Amino acid sequence: MRRVISLGFVLLVAVSQTIIASTGVSRAFLSEFGANSRDAFPQSDSGIRHGRRRRVRGDFGRRRHGGIKHEYKESGLSVGHGGRRLGKHMKHGRPLHAGGAFGRGMGGFGKHVGKGTARVGKRIVKH
Q1: Nearest 5°: phi and psi at 55?
Q2: pTM of the model as a whole
Q3: Residue 102: what are its φ and ψ, rounded to 5°?
Q4: In a 3-state reduction of DSSP, which class is residue 46?
């Protein structure tokens, strides 16, 4: 399988080199505008947004879940995910992975509790 993949890659490179050589593109041009250069393929200004942001299919729930209740809820879910992964790793005899997974869950817990508490403080000061 590796031979097939490497052979295909070599053929791809060889074909591309012959196409470049036949079109008469100089090597100075290719080295000046490398593949990673932004000037290699000039683009229009269509990437710059003007005015209202266009909403695409998966974008509708983007600004939801900003409340205090949601943050505290997410903290509990994060601990639950960490605990579930802890049990799975321990079941398979991987205690170090289990500890890491649980620690990541506890990290998410701290993150979301901190965000919820910050929002409580902002709401108290605001009113």
Answers
A1: -100, 125
A2: 0.49
A3: -65, -40
A4: helix
Give the 3-state DSSP-derived string for 103-114, with helices as H, strands as E and coil as C: HHHHHHHHHHHH
Length, in residues, of the chain: 127
Pick out the chain residues at pLDDT < 50: none
pLDDT computed for residue 41 by the predictor: 53
CB of 122 closer than 8 Å to CB of 70? no
What residue ranges do the domains of the chain occupy? Answer: 66-126
Q: 112 near 74, Cβ under 8 Å? A: yes
Q: What is the pLDDT of residues 21-41, one digit of tens each?
A: 677 655 555 555 555 555 555
Pick left, alpha or beta for residue 72 (phi over 0 → left; psi -120 to 50 → alpha; otherwise beta): alpha
Q: Write down the residue that tokens 């012959």 correspond to.
A: 18
Q: What secondary structure letter does DSSP report for 70?
A: H
